Amino acid sequence: MAERRLAHILHGDIPTLFEAPLTEGGSSDVTLLGVPYEGILVGDRHTLYPPGSRPPESFYARFGADEAPDAIRRASVIYSLEHEGGIAAELDFTCLSDNLQIVDAGNHTLDSAQAVARQTGQAGGVTVALGGDHLVPLPLIRGLQQGQPRRLGLVVFDSHLDLHPSPPQWAGSQWRTLIDEGHIRPVDISIIGPRGVRQSPHEIEYARQNGVRVMTLREADERGIPSVCKELGDRLKEVEAVYISLDIDVVDPSFCPAQKYPDAAGLTPREILTIMRKAVSEVPIAGFDLCCFSPRYDEGQRGALLAARFALEAVYACQHRS
Ligand SMILES: [Mn+2]
After folding, report:
1. 231-243 tens-digit pLDDT
2. Cis, peptide link before residue 167, omega less than 30° from 0
3. If you compute the radius of gyration of the chain from its CA atoms, what whole number of angstroms results?
């Protein structure tokens, strides 16, 4: 049987995301990009390894998020826009390509990702980014806010708070850095899904004192998804646009084993999609990122497929803007 011919190639045998046309810079609608950046690695409670490290692999300290964008792109051909332009069943069979200019701007460093986000923001577009570790939203939100300053609501799906005060360029402190730089207000942040014991007292203290809304998975379970959506919708009435950041470790690892910091019994993909849909039905989406996916721990590409599906949902969200 003949191999499937790729419509748009990023490099080698790697297609562009959803086989969108490859371009430089940002689109006025949807700019897809990869940020294959992995920074500081947590060796154990007392050891941080600098960016670029490859410490001995262990279950506690995994790496490989810098391999994620291309692995997700490979799986994303299932959602190829070349297939009739991308007719979305979940959007009443709307053709995505008819309504949105969707481009893949390729892979970027933190600095060039910030430039792409700035350009996209200036053009009034949305960035949909594949990390990388969870530092990736830092340059993206900076860039978007430079291009189009707005009061931004931040909806984070994560098992962790990432509210450490330091070091500032770390995937455990990115929200504090963005707050300190004035890009986002603590009261406009909602963190959905924390669970497990990789938490720190000073992060919880900071959240409580500054009005960051932390909804643990237990609270979400007890209240139910409709109640979670209701509260989120009310909170987003206060902002002009929403940025969604999805740390893949919020997902139950049975759906996606390829997580840097896995933790059992997480949210289901459809619960996340339901909450995402509610968020973007309230206010326009400004940007989306998916982080901490480590394809070397994937099984049969099911994690990569799920990651691509979440990115597709972010593209769907852009339909609400037009
Ligand atoms: Mn996390």
Report:
1. 999 999 999 999 9
2. yes
3. 18
- Alpha-carbon distance of 176 to 193, in angstroms, equals 19
Q: Maximum CA pair distance of the chain?
A: 61
Tokens 């297609």 identify what position?
A: 15
CA of 92 to the centre of ligand 1 (A): 33
Across 71-87, b (16+ Cβ under 10 Å) vs e yields bbbbbbbebbbbeeebe
C-alpha 161 to ligand 1 mean position (Å): 7
**CB within 8 A of 83, min separation 6: which ones?**
none
Whether the Cβ atoms of residue 52 and residue 281 lie closer than 8 Å to each other: no
Task: Report the separation in Å between the CA atom of 83 and the middle of ligand 1, taken as the mean of its atom positions.
Answer: 34
232 Cα: distance to centroid of ligand 1 (angstroms): 20
Structure tokens belonging to residue 19: 């086989």
Nearest CA to 7 out of 19, 18, 25 is that of: 19
Q: Looking at this protein, which amino acid is placed at residue 178?
A: L
Q: What's the CA gap between 270 and 35, in Å, rounded? A: 25
Domain boundaries, the chain: 9-321
How far out from the chain centre does Cα 251 lie?
12
* 217-229 tens-digit pLDDT: 999 999 999 999 9
* 152 neighbors 162 (Cβ within 8 angstroms): no
Å from CA of 198 to ligand 1 middle = 9
- CA 156 to centroid of ligand 1, rounded, Å: 10
CATH node for 9-321: 3.40.800.10
Average pLDDT of the chain to the nearest whole number: 95
What torsion, rounded to 10 degrees, do the Cα atoms 319, 271, 195, 46 define? Answer: -40
Provide the pLDDT for residue 102: 97
Query: What is the 101 CA–ligand 1 centroid distance (Å)?
Result: 31
